[in-house]
Design a protein that fits this description.
The protein is an alpha+beta fold. Helix content is about 25%, strand content about 35%. It is built from five helices and eight strands, in the order βαβαβββαββαβα.
């Protein structure tokens, strides 16, 4: 197999029912008080998410995804009734387009479907491998484009 997975871990992402309540939970229970909140409807019209909030705790980025629960996407219907926060994916860097392609090939060779993939503006390329049945979450791989470094620079540190 061409690539070892679980290298370059950088992110833990949760789907949340309501972004402000989730940020309060992370502040009050886990000490993560500073967040960068993005209005995804304004940044990416037609997005299946309302808001995304990011924050660093140490070297790990936390991501909160306030999704449109009925929107057809890998985020919609992720939360059970009454559930406010649920682990959705772990994020990993791919340092080149070739590394992203090699990871994609490995997932496909393993019989794991690519649940979603694409490009977010001039910021990043991404793919989500469906590891839900096996691991309970998706596995996201992100390759930053040149503008991506500036995009994530707005994410505050909570050290």
């Amino acid at each position: 197999m061409p690539t070892t997975l679980y290298r370059n871990h950088f992110q833990i992402a949760y789907v949340v029912r309501e972004i402000d309540a989730a940020m309060r939970l992370f502040r009050d229970r886990y000490g993560v008080a500073r967040w960068h909140v993005m209005d995804m409807g304004a940044l990416n019209p037609g997005s299946p998410t309302r808001y995304i909030a990011t924050a660093y705790s140490g070297e790990v980025m936390l991501e909160l995804i306030d999704s449109l629960q009925d929107a057809p996407s890998i985020y919609g219907n992720w939360l059970a009734d009454g559930q406010a926060v649920r682990l959705h994916h772990l994020g990993f860097w791919a340092h080149s387009p070739e590394e992203l392609a090699a990871a994609r090939s490995r997932f496909e060779a393993n019989g794991q479907a690519i649940a979603a993939e694409g490009r977010f503006g001039d910021i990043l390329d991404f793919l989500y491998a469906d590891c839900v049945a096996e691991l309970g979450h998706y596995y996201e791989i992100v390759h930053l484009l040149p503008a991506g470094r500036d995009f994530f620079a707005a994410t505050p540190r909570n050290d």
